[in-house]
Amino acid sequence: MNPFIDALGIIKKDWKLLAILNALFFCVLIIGATIALISPGLHLSMIEFIGADTIAGQSGAPAATSTAGALEAAVLSFISSFFGNTLLMITIPSIVLPIWAPIIGAARFFIWGVTYVAPLDGVMTLRSLLPQYIAIFLEGEAYTIAIFACVRQLSVALAASDRGFRNLLRQYKKSVIDNLKLLLIVIVLLAIAALYQALVIPILSGIL
Q1: Largest CA distance in the chain
Q2: Which pLDDT band holds residue 105 (cuts at 50, 70, 90)?
Q3: What distance in Å separates the CA atoms of residue 152 and residue 39, rounded to the nearest whole number?
Q4: 3-class secondary structure for 1-26?
Q5: Rg of the chain's alpha carbons, rounded to an integer?
Q6: Which residues lie across from 120 on neighbouring strands?
Q7: How far apart are CA 148 and CA 154, in angstroms?
């Protein structure tokens, strides 16, 4: 079987769990954005702490001057997003502490909400933020699927715990394999997000 097709089948089977996680993180994002609107000082402090006023970096940063440079930026962005923000911050820690994935996910979406969603006078305008919302959606959905894989991995193991230790290990092993398959979808989404940020956002920013 094609592992990518298998991953889509897993999502189709457990779409309710994925929908719940999407709704949860969307609410957290909106809460963060609301706090940013209420407290511009906190909003500015978060931008200064992170060092970027958009998810793709500083809005005033010069764009790559060549296609090769843009592709290099996309590759670096993908490596950071997948290996750093996904594997090291979500997938691997969740093997030891399964509840870690939704916690770090909620924290990330809250920070995004405070920092990257609402405009801020003298720093970022709604027009400059509009192209960033697609990047937030793409990366956000990729991280949500990675978290979905970890939460599903835990739920499968718990469901098999009353049928003996061997069955628990067998089901857990299967859920780990499913997790790896779901990472294929994460890779695709993060690759699209990286290309969008490196190639499309500079064009849209120039138009807007």
Answers
A1: 61
A2: very high
A3: 36
A4: CCHHHHHHHHHHHCHHHHHHHHHHHH
A5: 19
A6: 124
A7: 10
Q: What is the DSSP letter of 120?
A: B
Q: Which long-range contacts (CB under 8 A, 24 or more apart) does 151-160 make?
A: 151/17, 151/21, 151/98, 151/101, 151/102, 152/10, 152/14, 152/17, 152/178, 152/179, 153/94, 153/98, 153/178, 153/179, 154/94, 154/98, 154/99, 155/17
Distance in angstroms (rounded) separating the CA atoms of residues 52 and 95: 31
SS3 66: coil
- Of all residues in the chain, what percent carry a pLDDT higher than 70? 90
Residue linked to tokens 């060092």? 51
120: left (phi over 0), alpha (psi -120 to 50) or beta: beta
Looking at this protein, which amino acid is placed at residue 108? R
> What is the C-alpha separation between 161 and 71, in angstroms, rounded?
47
Q: Could you give the 3-state DSSP secondary structure of residue 124? A: strand
Local confidence band at 96 (pLDDT 50, 70, 90 cut-offs): confident
Averaged pLDDT, 23-33: 97
Q: What is the mean pLDDT of residues 24-36?
A: 97
Predicted confidence at residue 58, as pLDDT, reads: 65
The span from the first CA to the last CA of the chain, in angstroms, equals 45
What lies within 8 Å, CB to CB, of 71 at 6+ separation is 198, 199
